[in-house]
Amino acid sequence: MLNKEIKEYNSSQSENDSKICNVLSREIDKNLEGAESKLWHGHPVWFIDGNPIAGYSKLKDCIRLLFWSGQSFDEPDLVNEGKFKAAEKRYTSSKQIDKDDLKRWLEKASVIQWDYKNIVKRKGVLIRL
After folding, report:
1. C-alpha span between 22 and 44 (Å, rounded)
2. 122: pLDDT strictly greater than 80
3. d(CA 93, CA 33)
4. How far, in Å, CA of 21 to CA of 11, rounded?
5. Half-sphere exposure of 82 (CA within 13 A, CB side)
6. What is the DSSP letter of 128?
7. Contact criterion met (CB below 8 Å) for 69 and 112
8. Residues in a beta bridge with 114
9. What mean pLDDT is reported for the chain?
10. How far is CA 70 from CA 1, 3, 16, 17, 47, in A?
11. pLDDT digit string (tens) for 95-114?
12. Which is more confident, 83 or 23?
């Protein structure tokens, strides 16, 4: 069942962005069974054992889907993001969301993880779980 805060986040977006958010949240919830979901730094994020796995956020002209360990997925449609191991996909329409791709990425996300939960304790060093 979708987290109440995430439902509110989704409904607070424009009609078009809300459609994107609703598809993403439904598919992430369905394919990351047992993950905890919450608003984290103001955006919907799913965690496994306290480690951030996947989430999305509103950017100026799109909704960005982010996988914290996505650079390790070997997926050409995901674009590297930031200086750690994250990768993203950006959407401007819910029709752009390929549910088969999303399911595959989420399957990889549940088994390919870098330890973001302890990154501060390790002074910015990531290790693979």
Report:
1. 11
2. no
3. 25
4. 9
5. 11
6. B
7. yes
8. 128
9. 93
10. 25, 23, 25, 23, 14
11. 999 999 999 999 999 999 87
12. 23
